[in-house]
């Protein structure tokens, strides 16, 4: 099957689902209170996109996501590389890490609001707790899975500990870390949105929460669509970054299993 | 007959007695309670090509790793050029059986590693590396990543990488066993040519007796493991330069092969009995 046919089938599926949905609404089979017409959702999205005030919400959510993402990733990589290299430290800290990771992060949201207020940072904190562990476990795994022969070779060639980090451990961990970055970007958004949803005065999560408060299903669905696009765009940016960073890998485009 | 002390200097071809480059004195290597090799004594002279053969699982590689300083002997001492080995050695070149190149670096960057870690300036090490890559026949492949090279080409890069630092001793752990037979012969000849240019002490581990005789100045036979030890040592007095694929037809080669095989055979059979 060539790419063209696949695209046509995908398009066909979309038309059938959305068209069927729209027809169902018009025939009165589907209750618009629960499932608003796709056409109305589109109208709402367009209305938001042409409204300058809407971008304030987008930029706030984006800032929270990016901050949570960057901080969580940086901490995760640092901790992961450290514990990957030091078995002793890992054995001591392992139960604590497991316990912390076992906490459902959503319940932390009210605590972060209590500590950090209703503003930006409580959402960033929630994002960080979600992102950290994914990156952490991947970075640790990446460091541990360094081929011992490659490591021995580098040491014989004269690599000291710092050169081993920059030339062997970090690049070896990079593909693991990058694959975790794609998973964690979704979590960064989730963290930001849940934070906003539970208490905020702006942001996409706040928009959805507000629409929900008014039983405005159109607003909720439109918000969800916007969020999906939001994540897709970030994902695409990561795609490009990954292709640039890992050009040495034989399957840099398909090796992102997580 | 538990062990045999092997005198090496006498087997050298050069008239004046060269100094010993690697000395292994009553070395025992063990992992927990498992003793891989026991009481091994070996001396490799400067410029000597020593081939060690033995059945699989006899602990051949642990001896190399002890020389490289990657493993610490349970007892006994290893010294290179008179200096005892403590920790990983940087004055050796190690050719591994597996791929040891950094996959995220190009061929050129991989060859540059040694000089870079030793602090050679960027321009100088680039120049050296280009020269070495050309020497191993990889001119024009400098910017390829390891996954873009064939198995033989990767071996060549590894050879350049190991030799560029001008090591005192070259260690080889079945370096060509993963290659197909034609590539293997080609690589063996190239290795001999490179070695002939600038003779270093070489310790090569192999399970391929033909390879050992064709390349080495001396072939040492190890007993089947565990508690492996040196059981025999055969000088190889075939003229150099040698052609690996032709030398096998030489009647002296066949005599040597018969002699060494009669010694090795018993050990190989023992090792099969233990493993099956």
Automatic annotation (TrEMBL), chain A:
* Topology within the bilayer: Multi-pass membrane protein
Q: According to its UniProt record, where is this protein mainly located?
A: membrane
Q: Which residue ranges traverse the bilayer? A: 66-85, 97-118, 164-181, 187-208, 215-234
Can you tell me which family this protein belongs to? Belongs to the binding-protein-dependent transport system permease family.
* Record key words, sorted: Cell membrane, Membrane, Transmembrane, Transmembrane helix, Transport
Name the source organism.
Mesorhizobium temperatum
Q: Which GO terms describe its biological process?
A: transmembrane transport
- Start and end residues of each ABC transmembrane type-1 domain: 58-238
| Domain of life from the UniProt record | Bacteria
* Name under which the protein is recorded: ABC transporter permease
The record's section on PANTHER family has: ABC TRANSPORTER PERMEASE PROTEIN HI_0355-RELATED, ALKANE SULFONATE ABC TRANSPORTER-RELATED, MEMBRANE SUBUNIT
Pfam families attached to this UniProt entry: BPD_transp_1
Alphabetical GO CC annotations of the entry are: plasma membrane
**Compartment list:** Cell membrane
Automatic annotation (TrEMBL), chain B:
Record keywords, A-Z: ATP-binding, Glycosyltransferase, Nucleotide-binding, Transferase, Transport
- Classification via InterPro entries: AAA+_ATPase (IPR003593), ABC_transporter-like_ATP-bd (IPR003439), ABC_transporter-like_CS (IPR017871), ABC_transporter_ATP-bind (IPR050166), P-loop_NTPase (IPR027417)
The record's family statement is: Belongs to the ABC transporter superfamily.
This protein's record includes keyword Transport: yes
PROSITE patterns registered for this protein in UniProt: ABC_TRANSPORTER_1, ABC_TRANSPORTER_2
User: Lineage, please?
Assistant: Bacteria, Pseudomonadati, Pseudomonadota, Alphaproteobacteria, Hyphomicrobiales
Q: Which organism is it from?
A: Mesorhizobium temperatum
Residues of the ABC transporter domain: 22-249
Question: What highest taxon heads this organism's lineage?
Answer: Bacteria
Give one GO term, molecular function aspect.
glycosyltransferase activity
Q: What is this protein called?
A: Mannosyltransferase
Q: Does the keyword Glycosyltransferase apply?
A: yes
């Amino acid at each position: 099957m060539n790419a063209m046919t696949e695209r046509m089938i995908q398009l066909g599926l979309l038309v059938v689902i959305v068209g069927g949905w729209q027809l169902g609404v018009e025939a009165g089979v589907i209750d618009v209170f629960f499932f608003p017409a796709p056409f109305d959702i589109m109208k709402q999205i367009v209305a938001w996109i042409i409204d300058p005030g809407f971008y304030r919400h987008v930029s706030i959510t984006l800032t929270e996501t990016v901050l949570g993402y960057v901080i969580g990733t940086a901490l995760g990589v640092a901790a992961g590389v450290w514990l990957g290299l030091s078995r002793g430290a890992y054995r001591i800290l392992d139960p604590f890490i497991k316990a912390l990771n076992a906490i459902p992060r959503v319940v932390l949201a009210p605590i972060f609001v209590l500590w950090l207020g209703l503003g930006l940072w409580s959402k960033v904190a929630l994002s960080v707790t979600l992102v950290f562990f994914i990156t952490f476990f991947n970075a640790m795994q990446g460091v541990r899975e360094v081929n011992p022969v490659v490591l021995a070779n580098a040491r014989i060639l004269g690599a000291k500990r710092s050169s081993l980090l920059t030339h062997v451990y970090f690049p070896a961990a990079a593909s693991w870390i990058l694959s975790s970055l794609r998973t964690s970007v979704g979590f960064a958004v989730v963290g930001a949105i849940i934070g906003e949803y539970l208490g905020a005065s702006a942001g996409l999560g706040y928009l959805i929460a507000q629409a929900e408060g008014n039983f405005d299903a159109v607003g909720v669905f439109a918000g969800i669509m916007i969020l999906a696009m939001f994540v897709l765009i970030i994902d695409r940016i990561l795609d490009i970054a990954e292709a640039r960073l890992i050009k040495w890998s034989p399957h840099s485009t398909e090796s992102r299993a997580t | 007959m538990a062990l045999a002390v092997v005198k090496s200097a006498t087997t050298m071809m050069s008239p004046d007695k060269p100094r010993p480059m690697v000395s292994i004195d009553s070395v025992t290597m063990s992992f927990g309670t498992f003793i891989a090799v026991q009481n091994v004594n070996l001396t490799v002279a400067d410029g000597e090509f020593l081939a060690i053969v033995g059945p699989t699982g006899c602990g051949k590689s642990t001896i190399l790793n002890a020389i490289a300083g990657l493993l610490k002997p349970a007892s006994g001492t290893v010294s290179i050029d008179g200096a005892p080995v403590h920790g990983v050695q940087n004055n050796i070149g190690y050719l591994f059986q597996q791929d040891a190149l950094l996959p995220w670096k190009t061929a050129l960057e991989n060859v540059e590693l040694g000089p870079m870690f030793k602090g050679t300036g960027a321009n100088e090490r680039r120049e050296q590396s280009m020269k070495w890559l050309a020497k191993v026949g990889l001119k024009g492949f400098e910017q390829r990543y390891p996954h873009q090279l064939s198995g033989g080409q990767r071996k060549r890069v590894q050879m350049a990488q190991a030799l560029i630092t001008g090591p005192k001793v070259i260690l080889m752990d079945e370096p060509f066993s993963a290659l197909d037979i034609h590539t293997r012969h080609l690589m063996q000849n190239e290795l001999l040519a490179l070695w002939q240019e600038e003779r270093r002490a070489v310790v090569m581990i192999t399970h391929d007796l033909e390879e050992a005789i064709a390349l080495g100045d001396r072939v040492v036979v190890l007993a089947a493991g565990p508690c492996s030890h040196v059981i025999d040592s055969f000088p190889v007095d075939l003229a150099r330069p040698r052609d690996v694929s032709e030398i096998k037809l030489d009647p002296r080669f066949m005599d040597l092969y018969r002699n060494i095989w009669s010694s090795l055979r018993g050990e190989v059979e023992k090792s099969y009995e233990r493993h099956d």
